[in-house]
Write a structure and sequence with these properties.
By secondary structure, the protein is mainly α. The chain has 4 domains: 87 residues, no CATH class; 133 residues, no CATH class; 46 residues, no CATH class; 96 residues, Butyryl-CoA Dehydrogenase, subunit A, domain 3. 57% of the residues lie in helices and 0% in strands. It is built from 22 helices and no strands. Helix 11 packs antiparallel against helix 13, helix 13 crosses helix 14 and helix 21 runs antiparallel to helix 22. The radius of gyration is 37 Å and the shape is elongated. The structure holds heme C (9 copies).
Length: 421
């Protein structure tokens, strides 16, 4: 017996007890009024109508469930002959929602900006495909949106509000018993929550950081597949992807069937990269493919050296400029130049993705130049300070000599002339 049949039997049993069924006096919306009396607790759909977008737009129970909201008697209100659906079977829910949400002419009357492609996309997702095959484990519309109390995605209490999405997906994807049946791991949410992305969105509330649906799609949710991963990341890391696409690695990844960014960064547990990832040291990702002595190995080493050289120059510059500033010299310009050099360092790290030691040189040289200039300005300032200090001592010495001389002259004038004695 499927859920639909179960529903029919249940309502049949209820209707056969017609004498015991309540009725309502007025019929503005008998569904709401009677159910308010009949049901209680958190599962009562009437408790959440104030927050439901459908009710806010003047829709009600019968718009989803059918039946006659003007009828005061339960049998008449929930008459199958009047199109009452009862509790929709899980498998049929997407079609039920699609009755409106896939109808552009209908939806436009309410909100011309709301896309009407959710159902079409859903059918292409792994969830949708498995649902059509009768798999009741996969997500249907109400798994992610709930059936009652449906909120807009902009509402912070909605299960599909950006920061709530990982938790919504995790209700199933972190459920080991459920995922075992489908041969899927359950680490995605755990890993994601610790990643740069998860920390940015879940801890710091950075709405620019991706959630599960940014990478997988919401209605069309599926695995990106090896080829598409670069496109997924490129939504936000455009320059990095452009550099990669023009690099010698692009052809190599395509030929070997390797995912573009995932090979070095992973997918869910993406950590903040460090310079140690680059080069030929033990933490470097490059040595897993490039043998010592090969061109790629040498290039990796060279690329790391470029970064280390720039970092060292910036450190030098910073130390000298700090010293000068502590002596009270105005270091505004040099500090700005150092800030600029740090930006170039960040750019140089991005240019790692060109996978060419030469391509990294443009931003690296600019940064190097800026940091050298700042260091020189700092040195000049310290020199000037020392010069001024020496000048100060000299002036002081002259002053002391002058004052001493003056005192001598005064004493000379005040003392009684020896000749008069
Ligand atoms: C006069 C009272 C009354 C009215 C009016 C009424 N209902 Fe019900 N409804 C009930 C009762 C009682 C049940 C059975 C509750 C249960 O089994 O938990 C029920 C069950 C349901 C169910 C669940 C069916 C199932 O298969 O589990 C749905 C859906 C439903 N009503 C929707 C509606 C809609 C839509 C309307 C308005 C068109 C409506 N009801 C009007 C009393 C009413
Ligand atoms: C946006 C469409 C929609 C609206 C509006 C709606 N329902 Fe439902 N309702 C559903 C769906 C879908 C299910 C099946 C949920 C499931 O199986 O997970 C359902 C299930 C139910 C059930 C079965 C028990 C349960 O809670 O799952 C009852 C009873 C019910 N609805 C009553 C109502 C009443 C009363 C109203 C009006 C206050 C209402 N519904 C408004 C879509 C809707
Ligand atoms: C796997 C979870 C999931 C399923 C299943 C799902 N949705 Fe969504 N839905 C989301 C997420 C996440 C968002 C918000 C992000 C977005 O717009 O992609 C959303 C947004 C929406 C929106 C607002 C769209 C907009 O652009 O403002 C509508 C309407 C909607 N869903 C309807 C549906 C319907 C109808 C179904 C079933 C055919 C469905 N959803 C199935 C997760 C889901
Ligand atoms: C009778 C038509 C109808 C049915 C059936 C229906 N909806 Fe809606 N839905 C609407 C309308 C109208 C709106 C309001 C659009 C607006 O004003 O933005 C809406 C809004 C929504 C929104 C909010 C979109 C946003 O982010 O602004 C979601 C989510 C949603 N519906 C999901 C569902 C789901 C899930 C189902 C099935 C359980 C469903 N709807 C069934 C008509 C319907
Ligand atoms: C109601 C439970 C449920 C919810 C909620 C759910 N999923 Fe799923 N999802 C599943 C199941 C079960 C499968 C496995 C289907 C199969 O056997 O291929 C699956 C499959 C997937 C796959 C395909 C995996 C593969 O190896 O092909 C992706 C990607 C996915 N889900 C992403 C999401 C995202 C993103 C969300 C949240 C927006 C989400 N899911 C919400 C149950 C759910
Ligand atoms: C930064 C992008 C990104 C984010 C965010 C992300 N994923 Fe993934 N996910 C991927 C990639 C890439 C794969 C590997 C796909 C492939 O090999 O085709 C993957 C694979 C999967 C799979 C297939 C099984 C597996 O683990 O390999 C599931 C299920 C899945 N993700 C669910 C989720 C869920 C749930 C979330 C949120 C908690 C999430 N993903 C967040 C990019 C992402
Ligand atoms: C929706 C936009 C978005 C998508 C899609 C996205 N990212 Fe990110 N990514 C960000 C944001 C925003 C940050 C900065 C987070 C922070 O402030 O720490 C970031 C940070 C990073 C970082 C750390 C950078 C640093 O300097 O700390 C790496 C590495 C990264 N992402 C790789 C990826 C990869 C690989 C993918 C694809 C699998 C991807 N991202 C998909 C937005 C995105
Ligand atoms: C998944 C394996 C893999 C990883 C990891 C990898 N490479 Fe490569 N790389 C290749 C392949 C394959 C080629 C093309 C064949 C060749 O030239 O060796 C290539 C080519 C190159 C080239 C062009 C060859 C040249 O010097 O003219 C450079 C530069 C390069 N890689 C640098 C790096 C750096 C730097 C890292 C670490 C950040 C790295 N690679 C990590 C597989 C990899
Ligand atoms: C062959 C290995 C490799 C591949 C493939 C790769 N990266 Fe990187 N990525 C690195 C290394 C190494 C660093 C650290 C550079 C450093 O800090 O010195 C890095 C740093 C980053 C950073 C932080 C620095 C910055 O650019 O802001 C981001 C973001 C990033 N990668 C994104 C991506 C994206 C997106 C892709 C796919 C288009 C990708 N990476 C492909 C090795 C790789």
């Amino acid at each position: 017996m499927n859920a639909q049949q179960r529903g029919i039997t249940r309502i049949g049993a209820v209707l056969s007890m017609a004498v015991m069924l309540p009725s309502v006096a007025v019929a503005a919306d008998s569904c709401v009024e009677c159910h308010k009396q009949w049901e209680s607790g958190s599962s009562d759909p009437t408790q959440v109508i104030d927050q439901d977008v459908h009710f806010q737009r003047g829709l009600s129970c019968a718009d989803c469930h059918g039946g006659d909201p003007k009828a005061t008697e339960a049998e008449a209100a929930m008459d199958k002959a009047q199109g009452f659906l009862g509790r929709p079977a899980r498998q049929d829910i997407p079609q039920l929602c699609a009755r409106c949400h896939a109808e552009p002419t209908y939806m436009r009357k309410y909100n011309p900006n709301l896309p009407t492609d959710q159902y079409a996309k859903y059918l292409t997702s792994q969830h949708g495909k498995r649902n059509s095959q009768g798999d009741s484990d996969v997500a249907v519309c109400t798994s992610c949106h709930q059936a009652h109390g449906i909120r807009s995605k902009k509402d912070p209490f909605s299960p599909v509000y950006a920061a709530n999405i990982p938790g919504t997906c995790a209700e199933c994807h972190s459920n080991a018993a459920l995922m075992d049946r489908h041969g899927l791991p359950v680490n995605q949410h755990w890993d994601y929550a610790q990643s740069v992305h998860g920390q940015a969105l879940l801890v710091r509330g950075d709405r620019g950081a991706p959630h599960c649906a940014s990478c997988h799609g919401s209605h069309e949710a599926s695995k990106p597949g090896t080829i598409a991963i670069g496109n997924v990341c490129a939504q936000c890391h455009g320059l990095t992807r452009d550099l990669f696409a023009k690099s010698p690695h692009k052809a190599a990844h395509d030929a070997l069937g390797l995912p573009e960014c995932e090979v070095c960064h992973g997918n869910h547990l993406i950590k903040k990269p460090t310079d140690d990832m680059l080069g030929t040291g033990s933490g470097a990702v490059c040595i897993s493919c490039h043998e010592p002595g090969s061109k790629g190995y040498q290039s990796a080493q060279q690329m790391r050296e470029t970064i280390e050289q720039l970092k060292a120059q910036i450190l030098n510059g910073e130390a000298v400029v700090k010293q000068a500033a502590e002596l009270g010299m105005d270091m505004g310009d040099a500090e700005y130049a150092l800030h600029d050099a740090n930006t170039k360092l960040t750019q140089t790290r991005t240019y790692v993705h060109a996978f060419s030691p030469e391509a990294m040189q443009a931003p690296a040289q600019e940064g190097l130049h800026g940091a050298q200039q700042a260091e020189q300005e700092g040195k000049n300032a310290i020199h000037e300070f020392q010069f001024r200090r020496q000048g100060l001592w000299l002036t002081l010495l002259i002053l002391i000599l002058l004052v001493g001389g003056l005192l001598l002259v005064i004493r000379e004038m005040e003392s009684p002339p020896k000749s008069r004695r």
